[in-house]
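Researcher: Let's run the pair from yesterday's discussion. Sequence first, then tokens, for each.
Model: Starting with the first of the pair.
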Amino acid sequence: MEMTTSFGIDKIQSLLPHRYPFLLVDKVLESTDGTHQIAVKNVTMNEPFFQGHFPNYPVMPGVLQIEAIAQAAGIMVLQANESLSTGGYNTFLMSVDSAKFRKPVLPGDQLLIETTLISERRSAAKIKGVITVDGKVVTEATLMFMLVPKQNA
């Protein structure tokens, strides 16, 4: 197994089409052959969703936590296979199973997003994603996504 050293936002933006305010991965700490990855999302009070999502008790929406897992999974698969990332592919979410939200995510939390490949076939992959904050699981889900060629504009 080949371990990739950490990489930051420049490499992430070269792999994903997402941009502020919808880019939900700040850094990759470790990545192993497209089968396992640990990424980071720093949650700050400046996030635009906190304005309207329980303004007196700001909580990161669960759907955005799932999106962070999906983005991390896309980075994991695309980064591991250079022909996909340079060949112009995007990852599209197909399904979410067994999602559990165990604790609220609050401003100031640092999310560690761990993704593990369960299975892969031609243009689809299934991954297990777990988000922890301070060593405690806050969110977990199993996601399916597909690789789709980018449309040239």
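Model: Moving on to the second of the pair.
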Amino acid sequence: MLRDITLGQYYQTDSLIHRLDPRVKLVSTLVFIISLFVVDNYLGYLLATIYLITMIKLSNVPVKFIFRGMKSIVFLLLITVIFNLFLTPGTPLITIWKITITYEGLRFASMMAIRLILLITGSTIMTLTTTPNTLTDGLEKLMSPLKRFRVPVHEISMMMSIALRFIPILLEETDKIMKAQMARCADFESGSVMNRAKALVPLLVPLFISAFRRANDLAMAMEARCYRGGEGRTKMKPLIYQGIDRIAYAVILIYFVLCILIGRLF
């Protein structure tokens, strides 16, 4: 299950999406997420699905690798669907004892499920096609106007990048701890949901110790290299927009305008 989480991982390959400026991918992902809340009908979600499939095709990342991360949110997806399905009032369709499924609940639950799947998949594509370093540079460049208000843009960007980078590392560490405890007869798979949750408690202490140790090692390494924040720092590879980046901005703009039109007309 832990290996199925792809958020924060980078898939190295050569593709059109990989070569895009990180600022383009950040803005495109943000616009795509906003578009999922702008539309509220199946035609809009169909457009979002076509757009997402096109991006997956252009990224050259295997579809199985992208959707492998969906396994980690199945439980959240089920809870979302169940709550919206049974707790939304409206026109009754099916009544079983005291449980009633309404037309509005069925429609809202299916839309929430589609929205959640598209949101997670779109965000995953960005992290799979962007290295943590370029992601930091893109975030810092996009938020650079906030420096006038004394916002520590570089530090915020670096912290977000480190957080994403540490996700796969901590997952790998958790997997190692689980295997070590299973070799000592620990059971994480049998019993009720509560018993399996209680069995995960012994993982927390060594995991927190490992996380703090890694954070301390990173801080010492930064201090040893005389890190003093982003003021006056230069970039080895400065971000410069290319022609393909401008085309990508135009594509995401057209897509967003179509979403707004579909949301208002249908």
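Researcher: Give me one sentence on the second I can quote.
Model: DSSP finds eleven helices and two strands in the chain.
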